[in-house]
Design goal:
Elements (H helix, E strand, L loop, with lengths): L1 E4 L2 H14 L9 H9 L8 H9 L8 E4 H6 L1 H11 L6 H10 L2 H6 L1 H5 L3 H4 L14 H14 L4 H5 L2 H4 L3
Parallel strand pairs: 1-2
Helix pairs in contact: 5-6
Amino acid sequence: ILLLIRNPKDVATSFYHFSNAMSPLPSYETWDDFFVAFMTKKMPWGCYFEYISKWNKYADDENVMTITYEELKEHPVLGVKNIAAFFGFSPTEKELQIVVERSSFQSMKKNSQKTHGAFGNLLFRKGGVSDWKNHFSEDQNEKMDKAFEEHIGRTKLGRKLKYEVYCKA
């Protein structure tokens, strides 16, 4: 099992934009309305912190590899090499470069209409890290920091998220 996780502030930001663009999902008039729903477990797919907490008990299983979105953005070649090794593949350097290139956000966004049809534009917005800084108020930042520490900060997956690096203003 490949478990891809992302820091909670960027998850919230990304899901806010996705929810407002996807008509079957609840939309939110403001970021503040969304943030309250996110923090009070009123998301269509459940609570982020509970999700990570549940997966944390499997973090050391030999058949589970956890990688972060941020890790893949920083070191895509190493990330792909590690994923390939986990699944027992040994790609050549050429194959590795092709996978890295085709799995880049820019490439996936460019091909999104072909690969995902009408949903392509909805699924691929920015693909960056730290867009949360454009949305979170100081109070929201403090609430998210507190929730992170209370729920997953001291867990293996919590540490893997490098919260101090990606989620501190």
